[in-house]
DNA-directed RNA polymerase
Amino acid sequence: MRQAVVNGADVHPGANYIQTGDSGFRKYLKVLKPKLRTKLAEELKIGDLVDRHIVDGDIVLFNRQPSLHKLSIMCHRAKIRPWRTFRLNECACGPYGADFDGDEMNMHVPQTEEARTEAFILMNVRQNIVTPRNGEPIISAIQDFITASFLLSSKEHRYPTSDNH
C-alpha cells in the first residue's frame, strides 16, 4: 500500500487519494510532489484509507444497461491490460446481450470486503453458467469461438510448436 502511495495517480499500480484517520480530509496524490508522497507513505497508519488503483485479481462487477435480470450483472476478476478498454471472453457475452458492435458496458468495484465476498459468492460467472429461467447453459462457446476451435484443431492445419505463444 505504501508503494501505491509513492507511485501516485500517474503510475500503475498507484493510488489516487489518501485519507488519514485523524484529519478526515482526502489528499489528491496527483498534485503532490514525489517527496511529499513518500513522506505520506511512511506515515501510513492502521485506519488510514488509500484509494488505490485496481490490480490483477480484484473483484469487479460488470454489466450492460438495462439490467433486466440477475445475470445482467456478474462478478469477474480483473486482469489489468495496458489499453483503455474492457475485454471480455466472448463465451460470457450471452447474459449481457453483448455482441461486440459498440456495446457500452459498465464496471463497478465493490469497496468493502463484505461486498466483494457477497459479489463473489452470489454473482460469480462460474456460479451462473446455467440460467435460472429454464436450466439451459447461458455461458458457452458460440459462433467464431467454435469456428476458430475447429480450424485450429483440424488435421489439415498443423502448426509447429515453435509458433505457439
Q: What stands out?
A: The chain has a mean pLDDT of 85.
